[in-house]
Amino acid sequence: MNGPPLPRIRSTVRDGVLSVSLAGEFDHYSCAPLRVLLDGAAALGTRRLVLDAAEVEFCDSALLDVLERWSRGGRRWELAAASRSVRLLLELWDRVRAPLPPVSGPPRPARRSGRRATRPPGRRVPSAADRGWRPGP
Predict the structure, then answer these.
(1) pTM as predicted
(2) What is the pLDDT of residues 98-122, one digit of tens each?
(3) Phi and psi (nearest 5°) for 10?
(4) pLDDT tens-digit readout, 42-94
(5) What is the DSSP string of 43-109?
(6) Could you tell me which residues are beta bridge partners of residue 11?
(7) Helix or strand or coil: residue 23?
(8) Which residues contact 73 (CB under 8 A, 6 or more apart)?
(9) Is-contact 48 81, C-beta < 8 A?
(10) Is 44:75 a contact under the CB 8 Å cutoff?
């Protein structure tokens, strides 16, 4: 059979810790069994997840969604091992979730909802530099 490898999920529960080993590809559709497994474990009161994702060949934001869903309600998860694709996805997730650096310069005016700002024809909109703003050092 040709095509993407089917996802494999192995799990054990010991002392309130759910250990899950993943292999294969995980996208929106193939994450469904993992989502069901974690929802069931959460319903039974499991609070901690240890994830071994060393054999994951492909994953996308669906895996992040499953992990974020697990984290709701004060549950924790940790990564025991990760493949390159999982590491890259988690690094990108950390960058996106990180607070943005402060923006220097003049504040932008608030936009009115439902109406798009227009300018009269022939008038040039002044830039930030025209208003005296210069980039910092």
Answers:
(1) 0.68
(2) 776 665 656 566 665 555 555 555 5
(3) -120, 140
(4) 999 999 999 999 999 999 999 999 999 999 888 999 999 999 999 999 999 88
(5) HTT--EEEEEEEEEEEE-HHHHHHHHHHHGGG-EEEEEEE-HHHHHHHHHHHHHHSPPPPPPSSPPP
(6) 20
(7) strand
(8) 42
(9) no
(10) no
